[in-house]
Amino acid sequence: MPSQGLPLRVATLLTGLLECLGFAGVLFGWASLVFVFKTEHYFEELCEPDGALMGNLTGQADCKAQDEKFSLIFTLGSFMNNFMTFPAGFIFDRFKTTVARLIAIFLYTSATLIIAFTSAGSALLLFLAMPMLTVGGILFLITNLQVVAKHLAVMLTVFLFLLQLLYEQGISLRASFIFLSVCSAWHVVRTFLLMPRGHIPYPLPPNYRYGLCSGNDTTEGEKNAAESDKVEMQSNEFLPAKEETLEPGKQPESRSFWHHALSQRFVCHLVWLSVIQLWHYLFIGTLNSLLTNLAGGNRVLVSTYTNAFAITQFFGVLCAPWNGLLMDQLKQKYQKEAKDKGSSAMTVALRSAVPSLALTSLLCLGFAVCASVPILPLQYVTFILQVISRSFLYGGNAAFLTLAFPSEHFGKLFGLVMALSAIVSLLQFPIFTFIKGPLQNDPLYVNVMLVLATVLTFIHPFLVYWECRREKSSLAAA
């Protein structure tokens, strides 16, 4: 690495971290944002007169119609957050870094300005602003995955937590979101000075330049990138297939994308991801309502627990590498056994994924049980288990797809599983409406059903383990 390029690359890395932490995951700061919106009386006109009176006495009312509006906004935002992953990736692949980032800046800035200039009378604009925020955040995240460690793609929302704290100190909602809009100037500067115009080539060619170092010599940068792509394609021709350790005379069996997409392995993984993700989205989307009920409408208590939740989300970045370390250690262990017993590389990979899948289900089960118990102090444990479970979930999802399916289909399978799980996440709104309506704000029966559904997610790691055992038995018989 040339010495003069080191400061630029460090600046790119650090600013990329800041961008991911502060702007790429607004959705997961929803609890802090709802707290502020309720204090600003958004959708309060939908509350019944008795609910408004309760709000005057306790500081924050539990209003069914108001909570349903916020739940619907979050449902749309969370749906767009997953469903648009595939189109956003296509935009990045087709139009490259600069164009993708300019689209992200436009969406993000427009959304923050809409929120900044909304009021209780124009609260319906939140239905437009939140999806725009999430899609803009996805594009920020995708463009930064080139320079930021993948584990730090855990979506956090530092600024919305700070927004709530500043709001309680007298800083208005409008001032905070105008500040976020002004930050778009920083995004623009970073796009042109600290980011490549195209994709970062791999392996990195010698004297690769971008941003400030590229100057006007874009031809050389494009040439270096093209040469790097050529080297990578040539090197890939001599790499063995990821799925199998081939015996002499055998050729790898090439199977279509749809063969893998319709396989039992992929369908079980989709159900596993969808059920656990639905729990997380339902919890985040209804957290303000849950805390309001458990705190008896005490606004101070609700604020305290909302802050605690936001803080645990921030420290979730420390949990992200654990899953990867677990899988790496197990893979090394099973690789040694495979040399002695002749197991395939695919079997080794799948065996290393089984404990990760089972542990993620176990963490979600613990989080779900704690969330179902109506004891306010227990929610501190819920917050911790929730953030660890979510870190394991998204890291484990990408890792399993990488290990269990051919690399040439990874992008399509990842986009498909995220899009289909996004459709399942839409169930959170009818579930919330059912709790507020027929169940009269008592989520016991829904929680029991969801806990049972979480128990069923253990079927996925069991089937993967059973598949590995069958191959092991067949090898022993041979």
Automatic annotation (TrEMBL):
Protein's UniProt name: Solute carrier family 43 member 3
Keywords annotated in UniProt: Membrane, Transmembrane, Transmembrane helix
Keyword Transmembrane attributed: yes
Cellular component, GO annotation: membrane
Annotated source species: Neovison vison (American mink)
Major localisation: membrane
Classification via Gene3D superfamilies: MFS general substrate transporter like domains
Superkingdom, taxonomy of origin: Eukaryota
Membrane topology value: Multi-pass membrane protein
Transmembrane segments: 12-37, 70-92, 99-117, 123-142, 149-167, 173-193, 266-284, 304-327, 348-377, 383-406, 413-432, 444-466
Compartment list: Membrane
